[in-house]
Design brief:
about 60% helix
């Protein structure tokens, strides 16, 4: 059972109301001590799946206080070990207004993880440039190991997952951050691969290049399954699993293939590589939004929740329409 340590700072006069919130959430344990000034600090050990409920309750009750702080820390172990919560009997009805506890980390933690992956930093640009060069070399030499290395290095999956979360929450700040990182990263990779294609000779029929110029229904299924797996790994707090997903549904190799073929003047196969890139982007975003919604990642209250729900419906409609267009293109066998 994953646990979190939540450090809460509040005015001393709010200890009773905090106690009521903790009683409703049912943490593993909590203790308080005097903080600076007239504040007190309460440390709470809570199950990871209950963290979002606790944070939402704290924000609703205390966000008007300038002294209010809540810091979430991951915990490796707690002694004595907490007991697993007892499952209710089948005939026991759920309490009114309460749904099933989500089997994921809080959306606040998800947001922080995703926003860090979408930040446009010098490291992000350097990794994108390096992975593009590595991918181009691997593609030209038809070296699978080198191409996989470029997949693992490439940071382009992070901004796409951030874009999916931003549309799910309808968070405009994260949406702009993810769009900028996607645009700059893809533009940099395209420019470098165009240069490689223009100045270095290569055989477009090599297996690693040719395999990325043909798109079938299996590629769509792979991209959808990988997108779902990637978001599930993120929402359950297992980011290491994303490495396998990055290899399975890689965005950079088809982009590098497209740029190289365009730079070398091979326009027909370049269209197939571009279609594969579009398939991967559409499927990652569609799978991401749907998985976030199924996992219950959404604002909880008021007009923000209504706006997010409306934005998520629009996003799903757009991505489904794009996917249907791609499927029709593949089914009709339109030459690329």
């Amino acid at each position: 059972m994953a646990l979190r340590l939540v450090e809460i700072v509040l005015p001393a006069g709010e200890k009773r109301r905090l106690g009521q919130i903790l009683e409703e959430v049912g943490p593993h344990g909590h203790w308080s001590q005097q903080a600076e000034g007239e504040c007190h600090r309460t440390s709470v050990v809570v199950r990871a799946e209950d963290t979002e409920r606790l944070l939402d309750a704290l924000a609703a009750a205390f966000s008007s206080y300038p002294e209010f702080r809540a810091v979430v820390l991951a915990t490796e172990a707690v002694l004595p070990r907490p007991e697993e919560p007892k499952k209710p009997e089948p005939e026991t009805p759920a309490p009114p207004g309460e749904g099933r506890r989500p089997s994921r980390i809080s959306r606040h933690e998800i947001y922080e993880d995703v926003s860090q992956g979408a930040a446009l930093t010098p490291v992000f640009l350097a990794l994108t440039a390096i992975s593009t060069v590595v991918a181009c070399v691997g593609l030209m030499r038809s070296n699978v190991a080198v191409v996989i290395g470029a997949m693992v290095i490439a940071p382009l999956l992070g901004p796409n997952v951030a874009f999916a979360l931003a549309t799910t929450l309808w968070d405009r700040a994260l949406l702009l951050l993810a769009a900028r990182a996607n645009g700059v990263g893809a533009g940099l990779a395209l420019l470098l691969s165009l240069g490689v294609g223009a100045f270095f000779a290569f055989d477009p029929s090599t297996p690693e290049i040719a395999s990325r110029t043909q798109v079938g229904f299996a590629d769509v299924l792979l991209a959808l399954a990988s997108g779902i797996a990637g978001v599930l790994a993120l929402t359950t707090g297992l980011p290491a699993s994303l490495i396998g997903v990055m290899v399975a549904v890689a965005l950079l190799p088809p982009l590098a293939t497209f740029g190289m073929l365009m730079g070398a003047g091979h326009f027909r196969p370049a269209g197939g590589a571009l279609l594969l890139l579009v398939v991967n982007v559409v499927c990652v975003n569609l799978a991401g939004v749907v998985t976030f919604l199924v996992q219950g990642v959404r604002p909880r209250r008021g007009w923000v929740a209504e706006r997010a729900a409306r934005g998520a419906r629009i996003a799903v409609a757009i991505w489904v329409s794009a996917l249907l267009a791609v499927l029709v293109w593949i089914f009709l066998g339109v030459p690329t």
